[in-house]
Each structure stands twice: as structure tokens, then as C-alpha cells.
Specification:
Arc Repressor Mutant, subunit A, Beta-Lactamase, 2 domains, 6-stranded mixed β-sheet
Length: 281
């Protein structure tokens, strides 16, 4: 990893936003950050081992939500501070996370909420006020803009290969196997045999890496391919279902409708109408 280049990006991002910006590996362990130290409030919280673990759990949940969408996720920590996390990829492989945080919106309500949420942790009002005053207050309308800039920085780090992929693990190999074989009659046991691992190991590793289950990811691959094939005229729904790995057309219709809110036949009609309308313009 080009640590110097990454640190420069983090420093510039901090300069314009006021957020503490950090880079984490796929296990959500911090690799490099700017500034190096946490703000006094977070430093105080992290001195308590139990509170530190709760913070890490909150951040991991935020990262899992970002994985589900592939986009930057903005969320609040247990004490009302704003955090944002964006996944980093290298050729489709998760390589880590870019994170910004340790700020609050510059509003009276936000200040009151933070004070209320920290009263049990910091009973002394004077001490509480002193620590909370270390939390940067950022204009509320700028927070989402900063998060978008962070996403651009994440894409830059990906494209510049500043954060290369680690050696392939079970989750990465499973994802590759599914991408290559989803049209076949794949079941969980097939993946485990191909990777020489137990079901529990595979399920745990896959959910930790991608925030979803093996079966859900497999179904999503099939539905995306089915969506593409619905544009092809002359192919029946039964043929499409079979071609993308579904054994039963009824089940294909059910899961497609659940995901897209419309049946495959209705989806095809809408796309054909959109194509006809665009041709008339």
C-alpha cells in the first residue's frame, strides 16, 4: 500500500470537512488516519474497554450497511456523533473502508442530544461540556456533500490501486465461484466442496465480507441476468428462468417480483413500451 499517498488524501479530506478520516482493512482494523489521534471526547470513550467495543460494533454495522448498497453510508454513533463509511474495491474485490467521523451537526438540537446521550457515561456536567466542546460542529447541509466527496476519494484510491487487494480469502473465492457458476444448479454444498471448507466457515466469512448471505447473493446474480435477458425478444419466461439457474418459473416470478416490485412479464412490457416511446421521439 502507498501509505504516503493515502495519508495525503486523508489530510486533504480532513482539511475541507473537519472530519477525522481513516482507512480500515476488510476486518475494519484502522491502518492509517488523519489526524493520527482521536478527538478528546472519543479518546475518553475509548479508554473504557466496553465502550470501545460498542463503538467498534456500531462502526461495523455501519460498514455492513454500506456493503449492502455499495455506497457511502452516513449514520450516528451511540452518542449522537455523525460517521460516514464507504467501501473500497479493487477489481470487484473488497479491499477495505474509508471512514469519516467524530463530528456533529451545528444545531442546538444536536448539541442537546449529544449532552443527553452522554450523561450516564460522563455524569460530571463540567467534564461533559469540556469533552463535548472538542467535537467539531459542521453545518448540517454540508455533511452529505462531504460524504459525496469522500466517495470520490474512495473511488480515486481504488482506481490508483493505492489499496491493493489482500490475498484471496474464502469469501472472495466463493464470490468468484458463484459469479462463474450461477447459471448451474448450485447449492451451498457445491461451494463448500469447491473451496474445501465447512458450511459454517463459508457462511460466516461471506456475511462478514459482503454483508449478505451466499444464497441471497446467488439469487441476486440470477435476477440481474434475468433482467438483462428480458430485453431479448422471443424468449419465454420459462426459458429465461432456466437459463439463469432457476428450476421453477413460478419461483423465478415470485423472487423477481419481490426484488423489483413488478412481475417479469410486466417488467418486459414496460421496457418494450419505453423503447417504443423513445423511438417515436
Amino acid at each position: 500500500m502507498n501509505t504516503e499517498e493515502v495519508r495525503d488524501v486523508l489530510a486533504e479530506l480532513h482539511k475541507i470537512s473537519g472530519f477525522r478520516v481513516s482507512l480500515h482493512n476488510i476486518h475494519f482494523e484502522e491502518i492509517v488516519a488523519y489526524p493520527d489521534t482521536h478527538i478528546p471526547f472519543c479518546h475518553f470513550v475509548h479508554e473504557n474497554p466496553a465502550e470501545y467495543e460498542r463503538c467498534r460494533t456500531c462502526d461495523r454495522l455501519g460498514a455492513t450497511a454500506a456493503l449492502r448498497t455499495g455506497q457511502t453510508n452516513i449514520y450516528k454513533c451511540r452518542y449522537g456523533l455523525i460517521e460516514a463509511v464507504s467501501p473500497l474495491y479493487n477489481f470487484g474485490i473488497l479491499t477495505g473502508y474509508l471512514m469519516m467521523g467524530q463530528i456533529r451537526p451545528d444545531t442546538e438540537d444536536s448539541a442537546k442530544d449529544c449532552d443527553l446521550l452522554t450523561r450516564t457515561l460522563i455524569p460530571d456536567a463540567v467534564k461533559r461540556e469540556e469533552l463535548l466542546s472538542s467535537v467539531p460542529a459542521v453545518r448540517e447541509d454540508l455533511i452529505s456533500s462531504y460524504a459525496k466527496i469522500m466517495r470520490i476519494c474512495a473511488e480515486y484510491l481504488t482506481l490508483s490501486n493505492a489499496v491493493p487487494a489482500q490475498n484471496p480469502g474464502i469469501a472472495i473465492l466463493a464470490k468468484k465461484y458463484l459469479s462463474e457458476n450461477f447459471r448451474e444448479k448450485v447449492v451451498l454444498g457445491d461451494v463448500c466442496r469447491a473451496l474445501c471448507c465447512s458450511k459454517s466457515t463459508l457462511l460466516t466469512a461471506f456475511r462478514k465480507a459482503y454483508g449478505t448471505t451466499v444464497n441471497a447473493y446467488l439469487c441476486d446474480l440470477r435476477l440481474k441476468e434475468a433482467e438483462r435477458q428480458l430485453y431479448i425478444k422471443g424468449r419465454s419466461l420459462g426459458e429465461i428462468a432456466t437459463a439463469v439457474g432457476f428450476n421453477d418459473q413460478s419461483y423465478f416470478t415470485k423472487v423477481f417480483t419481490q426484488k423489483y416490485g413488478i412481475s417479469p412479464s410486466e417488467y418486459r412490457k414496460e421496457k418494450e413500451k419505453e423503447h417504443e416511446d423513445s423511438s417515436l421521439r
